[in-house]
Design brief:
Elements lengths: L14 E4 L4 E4 L4 E5 L4 E5 L4 H7 L7 E5 L5 E4 L14 E7 L3 E5 L4 E3 L1 H18 L4 H35 L2 E6 L4 H4 L7 H5 L3 H15 L3 E4 L16 E3 L2 E4 L3 E4 H17 L1 H6 L3
Parallel strand pairs: 7-10, 10-11
Antiparallel strand pairs: 1-5, 2-3, 3-4, 5-6, 7-8, 8-9, 12-13, 13-14
Amino acid sequence: LKVPAKAHAKFKPTSIDYDARIFSFREWDWTISLTLLHARARIETKPGEHQKRHLKGTNPTAATLVKQRDGRYFLHIPLTEATPEPSDPEGTLGVDLGRRRVAVDSDGEAYEADEINRVRGHYPKVRRSVQRKGTRAAHRLLNRLSGRERRHAAHINHVISRRLVDKATATHRALVLEDLEGIRQRTRVRQADRYRHSSWSFFQLRQFIAYKAALVGVPVVFVDPAYTSQRCHVCGEIGHRDALVFSCTKCGVFDADHNAALNIAALGAHVAVPELRVGSLH
């Protein structure tokens, strides 16, 4: 059975990959040379100060030319940057990740999740309303909504990861995180909370922290999350956690996330700090 021509989907090309044979970069006037369909052209660019700082003194050999919906063109140039050897830290900065607050560190600083939780509560309502229509325009809108939500979460993760890495750098400490791989499968939540649970972006935040830390030589340590939220950071006894409050029968009441972050920092100290590694052998 022959399919009518109009039934075939048509896609407009929106990007093209370049390698060293058909792409070159010239630093002194910030221009690029690209092989186009009918000729090779030298094109002016408008890099920002951030881009200039990273491109200066480099010789990139690949790029991707991307056409945006509004008709503008962007050139994505991947760069390889050498990372310094991780320094020997003088202490550890533990980080507890959660849904109520994106993160709380062992200094007691909270990185709130109010904005990202607002967005995660807003988009499902809009998505349900649009899905009822079932039209092509509705499907296109759903794709755009999904992209907005991902970009918003990524922006927040970038900001938080930068703050954590800058703090660890300034105080000469290693960053310690829980190894939360498989957390979605290991935890059970109410049906009403399943969307927020499945949209946790812990892995992305962990990736952002890891690569930002590597660029400045800050060690990152991952520890077993078992009992970090249930154990008292002072006496080590198992206590009771209720939302944001941790209670220990011996030591009193603490902020639950701060207590967990202190436990995480203590676990990481035996791995990251050389003096403690030596001491633990005796």
